[in-house]
Every structure is written in structure tokens, then in C-alpha cells.
Design goal:
The structure is a single chain. Helix content is 33%, strand content 25%. α15 crosses α16. With 605 residues, it is of the alpha/beta class. The radius of gyration is 24 Å and the shape is globular. It starts with 9 loop residues before the first strand and ends in a 7-residue tail after the last strand. The protein has 21 helices and 25 strands. A hairpin with a 2-residue loop joins β9 and β10. The longest helix is centred in the middle third of the chain and has 18 residues.
């Protein structure tokens, strides 16, 4: 919260900031006349849809935009010193030392050729003048503080061995390592499940109080904004459209865009008695008013599954043992149905989705898609299976080829499977881009020219290109702001209803899961601990971990500012097991029709 003398001690003052990028036709301003102040001990949130200029504002403040390709006008004052006039050597001492930054995409921010421990320790050696031995000890303490399980054994691992949520926690540890006076957090909790998100937000508040640190918090999660932000700045297409104390913004928004943003927020407990998913509210762009979306069609009774997973296990060998990433998982999925897979980052959700599509090889169990045994399929059968089954990947930047345009990336699967000619592919690409809320004119641009949310929409368009029957959607809407999240979720629901698409919807956003799911499966340490109809899971959760997940969901109510759940305190359990370990056979109890919970023999969360 704001320190008593914060009003007289601005850490960051941005005055009339205009940032322009060099284009073929000349310089184009992407943010215009931005004014904002962050005081010591204060949290200021910047909100707005992807592409509105939130991240560009942060990168301008850090002087991280490419020289010669971007220019900043105005003033960026750090404790009275204009960073736009600082030398490169001065900026190197500022970055990481005085200003810490949590970047939006942790995989592209971590160096793939250095270990995690080395990268965290490096900042401590450079900015806190510690020896390598002391820096490594402090790196371990920081990794434990951001709740990375088995942190000591993971110090010497490389970024690609961490899940998206785990990589995000490493980035948070690096940003906080030098106890900066200002922390710029660009979507710091996007890749985190709600329980770890609550703990990380609690940790940030603790450090903020200890150090009287200012925080510039960039996010599209309005529930998080309500819980952490003293003041809120709303941006739209490069302009600040509204700013003020967070309670006032939520209670009486003045700008139409702010009204529409708040009206788009998915809230738990708004589904009523409907068994089927329900479209997100439709927001009138001229008034900002919302109309509740209609309920979708239920799954036809008695339809045969398009996907059957039986006793699926995935293990990864390490010198010190085996990671039991997925353990004895079984479920089925019918045409037109959405089964959501939820749980902490690192619990095995993404590995389950990848194993189903044989992007990683299962250690045991069987997967049958549309009558085809995936484990026994040869190259020809696998190619045909790729036509009917697609995946929307968690990290959109890593899944797009940086050397080809996004139009070519979307057209590539259609051309590879011979579905259309090159002339038709261009028209189909334009149609797909418009379906996910992007202009067809952007087809000739490259992945690095888009925001994180825009790249996620491009990935969704590519997955839809082959008109598949089954899609693994791995955090498909996690990088999207609330208005686009509602739009894309509605698109996925409409396509499902039209084409009877089946979705395995992997997510940590419980409010979205409640909205789009027919059934929900809760994973913990690689195992399904509870599975059942959406209403049964949310209205009558039985497993302690399920209850914890639901209770940790941030509520978009500024009256709860600073009151999110405190950290649990105990160490997160690790899925690392000794060689030769045989897991116990789990049993399940049926609570109501289709609602099963794992018996509590050694499985409490």
C-alpha cells in the first residue's frame, strides 16, 4: 500500500511520452502524450487490450526499444533523473539494479544456454557485488520464495525443462533479486495458476512494504487490478483514456472503453443452473453496456467419444530419479464437448495435452483419437491424425517461426495437407484472421511485430486452419485482455456448436473455465484428483485442492485491495521420485452422476 510520505516521493514520472516506430512510410506514433506517476510504495496498474501500448510504455521507460527503429519524446524521470538523457553505461546500472522488470514472455527472456541458477545469480553478482558462492545461495533462497518445488535440484537445469508458469516464477525471482526501487511487472501472473498467483501477489506486497518499492503493474486481469492497484491507468490504441484511484475506476467508470472493459470481466458464480457452456456477455461498443450471452447446446447423450485416454503416464528420466509428470490419467471426450484441465503450473496439464497428440511419448497407457490408436500409428496415420487434431500452444512466440510471415504460418498447414491451392490459401488466411479479431492486412508481418495477445490470436487462427475435429487448447486465452478473451472464447464456442468440435481446454483461469466447460478435471502432481460436470465441480468441490483453487480466484472488487489469500507456507511438493518408485494405485469415489473424487490416501493437496 502507499507509504505515508509517498505523495512527496515519486519514483517514476512519465511526462508527455510519445513513442514512435520507423515504418516504410515514416515514423508512426504508437503511444501519444502519456502522463503517469508511480510513488514510492504505490502500485499503479496499466490496463487495456493487447496492442494498446501497455508494454511499449514499459519498454520505453527501460530504454529497451531498438535504437534507430524507435524513438521516445517527452521525459521519463527516475527519482528526478531523465532516463532519456542517460548514457548506455548509466542505463546498465539502472536496469536490474534500480528498476527491475518482469517480462511478458519468460521463455524469450531467459537465455536458453545458461542454467536457471546462473541467470538468477548473475544479476546479484553484477548489481549487489556478491561473490558467485553467495549469489548462488541467494538465488536458491529467491527460487524457494517464489515457490519453485525442489529448487535446489533445479538450479542447474535449463529454461526448456521448466513449465511456462515455472519460468514466470524464475523471472519474478530475477526481477526481485536486487530489491529495486521500482518494479515494472508486465503481465507477471499471466502464466500462473490462481493459487500461485495469490502467493506471488502476496510476496510482491510484502517486498513492496519492506523496501517501499514502487510498482508499475501491467495486466489485463481486472481481478488482479482490483486486488493490488492503488491507481489505475486505462489505455486504448496508444492513448490514456482514463486514470484515477482504482475504487473510483471500478465504481464509476467515465470512458466508454473502461465501461466495456469492466463489463467483459468473467466472474465466478454467474452460470446459474445451465449444464452447458454460456457465451460471454456481448458488449455494446457505443455505450459499454453488456447483454448476457446465450447458453450453448448440451452434448448429445450417447455420442461415442472422439478421444479416449486410459491410464496415461509420462515420466522423464533424470540422474537423481524420475519426474512423474503425468500419472495414471484416464478420461474421454465426446464431439461437441469441452473438458477443462485445471491445476497448478507444473502439475502435468500441458504434458497431458502433448502426450495425447504424441508430441511427447507416453511412458504407459493408451490414447485413441477418432478410432485411431495414437501410440501404434505409423507416419501416414499420424499425418492423417494431425489433420483432425490440432493444438493451440501456451507460448505463442515460441510456436511461431520468426522467419516467416504470419500469413505464411497460417497457410502452411493447409498447403502441406493439400486442402487448398496458394490462391485460395490467401483468402482463407484473411478469413481466419478476421475470425479471431485481426485485420487481414497484417498477414505480411512477422511474429515479433505483434503483442503477446495478438500472437495468441494468430496461433488460434492457425489451429483452426485445417478445420479439425479435436483441439488441445493449452492456455489459449491466457494472454488475452478481457474484451478479446470474451471475443475469442465466444468464437471457440460458436465453432464448437457449428462443427461439433471437441476441446481439451487447459487453463488456470477458473472464471473462464466455468464459462466454457461441460466437464472439469482437476490435476495435482500429475494425477486427476477430481473430475465431473462443470456445475458439480464449482458448486460442490470435494477435494481440498479443488476448494483451494476456487477460493484463490481474484475477485474484481477494489474493496478487497490487499486481502488476497495469504501464502500457504508449506513447500510445494515435487513430482521427482526415486528410480524404481511405484506409485500407489488410486481409487475414486462417485459423489454424484459423473462426479468422481480421489480417495484421500496420501493425496491431500
Amino acid at each position: 500500500m502507499i507509504a505515508t510520505d509517498a505523495a512527496t516521493r515519486p519514483v517514476l514520472s512519465v511526462e508527455k511520452l510519445t513513442t514512435s516506430f520507423k515504418m516504410a512510410e515514416g515514423w508512426r506514433a504508437v503511444i501519444r502524450d502519456i502522463d503517469l506517476t508511480v510513488n514510492a510504495g504505490e502500485t499503479v496498474a496499466i490496463v487495456g487490450e493487447s496492442g494498446s501500448g501497455k508494454s511499449v510504455t514499459a519498454l520505453s521507460a527501460m530504454r529497451l526499444l531498438p535504437p534507430g527503429q524507435a524513438r521516445c519524446e517527452g521525459r521519463i524521470l527516475l527519482e528526478g533523473r531523465d532516463l532519456l538523457q542517460a548514457s548506455d553505461a548509466e542505463m546498465r546500472t539502472v536496469r536490474g539494479g534500480v528498476i527491475g522488470m518482469i517480462f511478458q514472455e519468460p521463455m524469450t527472456s531467459l537465455n536458453p544456454v545458461f542454467t536457471i541458477g546462473n541467470q538468477v545469480a548473475e544479476a546479484l553478482v553484477l548489481h549487489r557485488d556478491l561473490s558467485w558462492k553467495a549469489a548462488e545461495a541467494e538465488a536458491l533462497r529467491l527460487m524457494e520464495r517464489v515457490r519453485i518445488p525442489a529448487a535446489k535440484s533445479r538450479l542447474n537445469e535449463y529454461p526448456h525443462k521448466f513449465s511456462g508458469g515455472m519460468r514466470q516464477r524464475v523471472m519474478i525471482a530475477m526481477a526481485l533479486a536486487c530489491r529495486p526501487k521500482l518494479l515494472i511487472a508486465d503481465e507477471p501472473t499471466t502464466a500462473l495458476d490462481v493459487t500461485v498467483q495469490a502467493e506471488i501477489l502476496h510476496l510482491l506486497r510484502e517486498l513492496q512494504r519492506e523496501e517501499n518499492m514502487g510498482v508499475l503493474f501491467i495486466t489485463h486481469d481486472m481481478g488482479v487490478v482490483a486486488e493490488v492497484a492503488d491507481r489505475t491507468v486505462v489505455m486504448f490504441r496508444g492513448d490514456v483514456v482514463e486514470t484515477g484511484p482504482t475504487p473510483e475506476i471500478f465504481a464509476a467508470p467515465k470512458a466508454i472503453y473502461t465501461k466495456s472493459l469492466l463489463a467483459s470481466i468473467p466472474r465466478l458464480g454467474t452460470m446459474g443452473d445451465t449444464a452447458a457452456p454460456r457465451r460471454f456477455p456481448e458488449v455494446d461498443p457505443t455505450t459499454g453496456e453488456a447483454v448476457e450471452g446465450r447458453a450453448m447446446q448440451p452434448v448429445p447423450a450417447g455420442s461415442a467419444p472422439i478421444l479416449t485416454v486410459e491410464n496415461l503416464s509420462v515420466r522423464f528420466a533424470l540422474p537423481q530419479g524420475q519426474i512423474h509428470a503425468v500419472e495414471d490419467v484416464s478420461f474421454d471426450l465426446r464431439p461437441g464437448e469441452t473438458l477443462s484441465l485445471v491445476g497448478e503450473s507444473g502439475c502435468g496439464k500441458s504434458t497431458t495435452g502433448r502426450a495425447i497428440l504424441r508430441l511427447v511419448n507416453p511412458s504407459a497407457g493408451s490414447v485413441v483419437i477418432d478410432g485411431q490408436d495414437v501410440a501404434k500409428a505409423g507416419s501416414h496415420a499420424m499425418r492423417a491424425m494431425r489433420r483432425t487434431s490440432q493444438m493451440i500452444f501456451q507460448d505463442p512466440f515460441a510456436s511461431l517461426n520468426p522467419r516467416i510471415t504470419i500469413g505464411a504460418a497460417i497457410a502452411e498447414p493447409m498447403l502441406a495437407h493439400g486442402l487448398v491451392g496458394r490462391g485460395q490459401a490467401k483468402d482463407r488466411v484473411a478469413h481466419l484472421l478476421e475470425q479471431v479479431g485481426l485485420s487481414s492486412a497484417i498477414a505480411g508481418r512477422y511474429p515479433h511485430e505483434f503483442s503477446g495477445g495478438q500472437r495468441q490470436r494468430i496461433s488460434i487462427a492457425r489451429a483452426l486452419a485445417l478445420e479439425p475435429k479435436f483441439i488441445v487448447a493449452d492456455e489459449a486465452v491466457s494472454a488475452l485482455d478481457v474484451s478479446v478473451k470474451a471475443q475469442v472464447s465466444n468464437l471457440l464456442l460458436d465453432l464448437q456448436e457449428k462443427h461439433r468440435l471437441a476441446y481439451l481446454f487447459i487453463s488456470h483461469d477458473m472464471a473462464v473455465v466455468e464459462r466454457v466447460s461441460h466437464r472439469v478435471a482437476v490435476m495435482f502432481l500429475g494425477e486427476i484428483v477430481e473430475i465431473g460436470p462443470r456445475g458439480a465441480i464449482f458448486d460442490n468441490p470435494q477435494h481440498p485442492y479443488t476448494r483451494r483453487l476456487i477460493s484463490a480466484v481474484p475477485v474484481p472488487d477494489p474493496a478487497r485491495l490487499g486481502q488476497s489469500n495469504p501464502p500457504l507456507g508449506e513447500e510445494i511438493r515435487s513430482p521427482l521420485r526415486p528410480h524404481g518408485y511405484v506409485p500407489p494405485k488410486r481409487s475414486y469415489r462417485e459423489i454424484s452422476p459423473g462426479h468422481f473424487v480421489q480417495e484421500a490416501i496420501g493425496t491431500q493437496a
